[in-house]
Amino acid sequence: MTLPVLAVTSGEPAGIGPDICLDLAFAGLPCRPVVLGDRDLLRARAAALGKAVQIVDFDPDSPHHEAGVLEVRHVPLRVPCEAGRLASENAAYVLELLDTAYQGISDGLFAAMVTAPLHKGIINDGLPDGGFFSGHTEYLADKSSTDQVVMMLAGGGLRVALATTHLPLKDVSAVLTQPLLESVARIVHADLRDKFGIAAPRILVTGLNPHAGEGGHLGREEIDVVIPALETLQAEGLDVRGPYPADTVFQPFLLKEADAVLAMYHDQGLPVLKYASFGRGVNVTLGLPFVRTSVDHGTALDLAATGKADSGSLIVAVETALEMTGSCRAAQAV
Questions:
Q1: 300 and 205 in a common domain
Q2: Does the record bear Repeat in its keywords (predicted)?
Q3: Is 90 annotated as a binding residue?
Q4: Residue 136 marked as a ligand binder
Q5: Contact 153, 159 (CB under 8 A)
Q6: CATH of the domain at 113
Q7: 168 plus 268 within the same structural domain
Q8: What global pTM score does this model have?
Q9: Was 292 annotated as part of a binding site?
Q10: 45 is known to lie in a ligand binding site
């Protein structure tokens, strides 16, 4: 049986990314997870952690799918790395991991991309003047010439997508327009259908304001933006419901009738999901022309090379990517 080959970027080298990637060698996953990173860094981290992992160079024609063996696509560090100590000189290395994974997907070498955490601040410190890196999601959208992507986290029995992502709270209302909300909902609907295999997705949509605006007494965004968007989408045949107050939408009797919740901003929906699933949650980028999942945590510099990092989220991210690639193949076969 030919196993799917997945690219796993090891992320910020000074963080826990290399540590948790090593655990893929023992995860018993029904795929070939190929870690993109510096082979010497991975070997050094394995030695420091006392993990008996055999690092081998990735060879598409000679798979090493056995316990304790980790296939690595070697990408060299720019400068030596010390666990817990950031170096802006390695910003280009971290971006090369993403570029290599994307190129491999474009060439048909990899079926999906799974990403370990990176550190946006140190990447920006290492970019030439005028350069700016806002995150995995935006970078991959630009690489693939994708006009719009949507951030969704999954875990703890929940899927929560976001209409807006990394914005100051004071800017959310101005950005949240009816066309934006409609296009986000269409992307969520399409990827739940095509990448998760849900034939008729049901999406619960939150309001922006407390009590979903309380009929305009606590804000008009629901009246002026959210409700008109839902009416347009419903007329197109999408099963979108709301707007629900964000403090009551996460109730079991509502969630059992839904496949995802669409929240208006980052900290409206994600605290609930992360409470329910932290350490086992997955970040999924919807709207890309390929499958990309990620861990739900950061670089945890203080845990690097200590043996205290939990690889659970990375393993679930690989499992989710496998599930999604299977659903994609099934959708294409219909």
A1: no
A2: no
A3: no
A4: yes
A5: yes
A6: 3.40.718.10
A7: yes
A8: 0.92
A9: yes
A10: no
CA dihedral of residues 300, 302, 303, 306 (deg, nearest 10): 160
CA distance 282 to 142: 22
Boundary residue ending a domain (287, 307, 322): 287
The answer to whether 166 is annotated as binding is yes
Residues 71-95 have pLDDT tens digits of 999 999 999 999 999 999 999 999 9
Sequence-distant (6+) residues with CB within 8 A of 287 are: 141, 146, 148, 149, 150, 187, 191
Range of the domain at 158: 148-287
- Both 24 and 115 in a single domain? yes
Tokens of 315: 């393993």
**Left if phi > 0, otherwise alpha if psi is -120 to 50, otherwise beta: which for 307?**
left
Rounded CA Rg of the chain: 20
Identity of the amino acid at 334? V
Residue-wise pLDDT tens digits, 32-75: 999 999 999 999 999 999 999 999 999 998 776 788 999 999 99
- Which tens digit of pLDDT belongs to each residue from 129-164? 778 898 898 899 999 999 999 999 999 899 999 999
* pLDDT, mean over the chain: 94
137 known ligand binder: yes
My answer on whether 280 and 295 are in the same domain is: no
Indicate whether 202 and 90 sit together in one domain. no
Letter for the amino acid at 299? Answer: T
Q: Count structural domains, the chain.
A: 2
Residues 206 and 315 grouped into a single domain = no
The answer to whether the annotation marks 39 as part of a ligand binding site is no
